[in-house]
Design a protein that fits this description.
315 residues, Nucleotidyltransferase, domain 5, alpha/beta, five-stranded mixed β-sheet, 3 domains, 11 helices, 16% strand
């Protein structure tokens, strides 16, 4: 049954001479539904809603305290001791209206998509079959928020050095860097504190400076601050991994690189229709262009000759 307002709209549009097809398209209805509404000549069915049930707020506050917030027990006492029959859903609504329940979960601050402002990084663990052997692998993904570009790579393990190598590969692939990298409160980059009070590991802060960005941790409990990153992992699970076979880690990463760059960058985004490759052409004017020969991260390993005469247990 269609709503009264839509029924009226159908009849008025029909009176103005609009075709059934056009009315159906504009209102998102089936043509037969429109025809039936026109035949009814705009007659509406009025329904009268019963008054909402009322329970003394002071009684609810007292019971909430006595029952330690247990709504089911509150309902039992209302029925058995006060003689007030009430539905569970109605009681929970009343409790929420009085502010007696758990405080509502606050969303993180809505940050507009600003060109050149940020990219997001996160990791997750997947069990993927390489050949005939299922293996646990760490997926690392970088997401350029404004233009929706992505860079994906898998690792057998992921530490601070691997994080630097991954960021170097991704940013050098793009050739540009945004002003900040949004991360969770991971110990790979965070020294102490959380959210805006987080202190970044000096090694990682110095690394980021070379690429003209800063690490920034989202507030604790505000994982939706990286919603684009989370959606990207969902796309990996639902679009990249199903129906593909991988011979080894190198084959997996080769397919992941081709999928996350060539395919996704030229595919319109579901809601906005934005094409990342085209959006990046616009955004590059707001990004920092990186030197083409920026050196990759490296580890200093001691040579065997340097270890002679050194007591490894008591250096």
């Amino acid at each position: 049954m269609i709503e009264t307002d839509k029924r009226k709209a159908i009849y008025l549009l029909h009176q103005e001479g609009m075709s059934v097809r056009e009315i159906a398209r504009r209102l998102g209805l089936g043509r037969n539904t429109v025809r039936r509404a026109i035949r009814d000549q705009g007659q509406t069915v009025h329904t009268v809603r019963k008054d909402k049930q009322h329970i003394d707020p002071e009684l609810l506050r007292r019971l909430h305290q006595e029952c330690e917030g247990r709504v089911q027990r509150m309902r039992e006492k209302l029925v058995e001791e006060e003689g007030i029959p009430v539905e569970y859903s109605t009681l929970t609504r009343m409790i929420r209206d009085l502010g007696l329940g758990s405080p509502p979960q606050t969303r993180c601050q809505r940050v507009p998509d600003e060109p050149g402002a940020e990219f997001q990084h996160d990791t997750t663990v997947y069990q993927i079959k390489l050949g005939d052997q299922p293996v646990k692998l760490v997926a690392s993904l970088l997401y350029l928020r404004y233009s929706k570009r992505r860079y994906l790579k898998f690792y057998r393990s992921f530490d601070r050095f691997q994080m630097k190598c991954f960021l170097h590969e991704a940013l050098m692939h793009w050739g540009y860097s945004a002003r900040q990298c949004i991360i969770d409160n991971t110990n790979l980059a965070r020294l102490r504190g959380t959210g805006h009070q987080a202190v970044i590991v000096p090694e990682m802060a110095a690394f980021a400076k070379q690429y003209a960005f800063e690490f920034r941790c989202h507030e604790k409990g505000h994982a939706n601050r990286k919603a684009g990153e989370e959606r990207s992992f969902w796309t990996v699970e639902t679009n990249f991994l199903p129906g593909r076979t991988f011979q080894n880690l190198e084959d997996l990463n080769q397919q992941g690189l081709e999928w996350s760059t060539s395919r996704l960058e030229n595919r319109p985004q579901a809601k906005t229709g934005l094409i990342p490759a085209q959006a990046f052409d616009f955004e590059r004017g707001f990004l920092t262009q990186l030197p083409p020969h920026l050196p990759a991260p490296y580890r200093v390993l001691a040579q065997p000759s340097q270890l002679k005469g050194i007591d490894l247990e008591n250096p």
